[in-house]
Design goal:
D-Maltodextrin-Binding Protein, domain 2, about 450 residues, alpha/beta, 2 domains, four-stranded mixed sheet
């Protein structure tokens, strides 16, 4: 992996004290900082727009900003473009050994694990409570989004961007099925009713609700967790993981009803490339309803550069909030629910220049910086609502997610055991989709969770 790393540096020569950064040392006069992210500025490179933004905009402008204050700073960017787990392993090792970058990009789902391992520390501890509270950006980041970089009530970093899950539907298919173009179900039964009408349209799979282990985390975040939130439950609550509970069984009942009535394609859920094939089918008008994040709109169906572009996306594709099982039965008594992912940036506790790292972190999450990132990388939902309101105004779908989904969304538990529990959820969904009874699938799931988290006392069941 190390061979993938490349370094970009911006240097300003002004007399100052020598202060070394955590990863790069001083290497000359002035303060020295390093940024790392799973992004690389190369043709077809992973997150290339982000890498170019850091190299070409963030670094030189931050250097200039500090120079105007009379501070000399040299900033380097350590870039890579590898699978997320490889990146995670690299930064975990770096942070443990004290050789990591000063400012580190981190997936929100890893925050709890890194916090438990003391590889990262709360911002309050690193830079002081008053300084953290003084950042004016917090007022523009919804509480739910702030949780992306928090753990057990402590804030470890600043969120970068997020997303939200919705029901996408094909308006042309809906018209053939006699359904409205502005469809918004208010309960699970209404989703099933719509699916039964779509079933009458030849050559169309009514609903794509991810249920396969081959779909991986997409089954958890686009299926099991939104539905679980719709029953009023989260996956981890009261200090325990949710095992074989009535609410889990209610979710599995919904899956079983949908697939037993052939309102979804059970064979597709077992296909190694099932997710990509479901995207293609939707783009071709062969799927009526599909549960996904806004990535589906901006990345998959995008008429310009999408993996399965839809020329008529803007007129043919509709979206709706995911309803709770019944009105008011969702988490926090909500009528509608969602699940969000995303990540942020944290400060290396071993940084030799924490105060300056905090300034860099704030700078990278300023409105100006994020607007520049959007200009380079295309529309996406940032953590800041003020930026979203300004930058997403011409995109109704992304604006919908920013304004109506983020205030009601929930996050995955940022705990080390999450991945194992998630795999158990995926298997349970597949089990009922392929014919196993709800009782048997739920019982198997409950046992898998107990094994994954290390004991029955850590798991809720009823």
């Amino acid at each position: 992996m190390a061979s993938n790393w490349r370094v970009f540096a911006a240097v300003v020569s002004v007399g100052a004290l020598v202060v070394g950064g955590a990863a790069c040392g001083s290497g000359g006069s002035g303060a020295s900082l390093t940024i790392t992210a799973n992004a690389i500025n190369s043709a077809g490179g992973k997150n290339a727009a982000e890498a170019k933004w850091i190299e070409e905009w963030v670094i030189p402008r931050f250097v200039d900003q500090q120079q105007a204050k009379g501070v000399t700073v040299r900033v380097k960017f350590q870039a890579t473009g590898v699978p997320d787990e490889d990146y995670k392993s690299r930064i975990a090792k770096d942070l443990k050994t004290g050789t990591g970058a000063d400012v580190v990009s981190l997936d929100g789902i890893w925050v709890g694990e890194f916090a438990e391992g003391h590889q990262i520390e709360p911002l309050d501890k690193l830079v002081g409570v008053d300084k953290v509270k003084a950042w004016d950006g917090w007022q523009h980041v919804p509480d739910a989004v702030q949780q992306l970089t928090s753990y057990q009530g402590a804030q470890y970093g600043i969120p970068i961007e997020t997303d939200g899950r919705v029901l996408f539907f094909n308006r042309k298919v809906f018209e053939q099925a006699g359904l409205p173009a502005n469809w918004q179900p208010t309960a699970w039964d209404q989703v099933l009713e719509a699916a039964r009408k779509v079933k009458a349209v030849p050559g169309v799979v009514p609903v794509q609700l991810n249920a396969g282990t081959s779909f991986g985390e997409a089954t958890t975040t686009q299926g099991m967790l939104p539905l679980l939130a719709g029953t009023g439950s989260t996956l981890y609550e009261g200090g325990k993981w949710v095992g074989n509970t009535a609410k889990i069984r209610r979710v599995l009942d919904f899956y079983r009803t949908l697939y037993s009535e052939q309102l979804g394609d059970a064979e597709l859920q077992q296909d190694a490339k099932g997710r990509e094939k479901s995207f293609e089918k939707f783009a071709k008008g062969q799927v009526g309803i599909l549960v996904e994040s806004d990535y589906f709109w901006r990345g998959v169906l995008n008429p310009t550069g999408g993996s399965f572009p839809m020329t008529e996306r803007d007129t043919q594709v509709g979206w709706a909030k995911i309803p709770a099982a019944t009105p008011g039965s969702g988490v926090h008594g909500q009528d509608f629910v969602s699940i969000s992912g995303g990540g942020g940036r944290v400060i290396n506790p071993k940084s030799k220049n924490v105060a300056l790292s905090w300034e860099l972190l704030q700078f990278m999450n300023s409105p100006e910086a994020l607007r520049e990132l959007l200009a380079r990388g295309g529309p996406r939902i940032t953590a800041r609502q003020d930026v979203n309101a300004d930058a997403l105004g011409s995109d109704p779908m992304l604006t919908f997610v920013s304004e109506q989904i983020l205030p009601i969304t929930a996050l995955r538990p940022a705990l080390p055991e999450y991945n194992a529990v998630s795999k158990a959820l995926q298997q349970a969904a597949l089990d009922v989709a392929t014919g196993k009874s709800t009782a048997d699938a739920a019982a198997a799931y409950g046992k898998a969770v107990v094994a994954a988290v290390g004991g029955q006392d850590k798991v809720a069941s009823d």
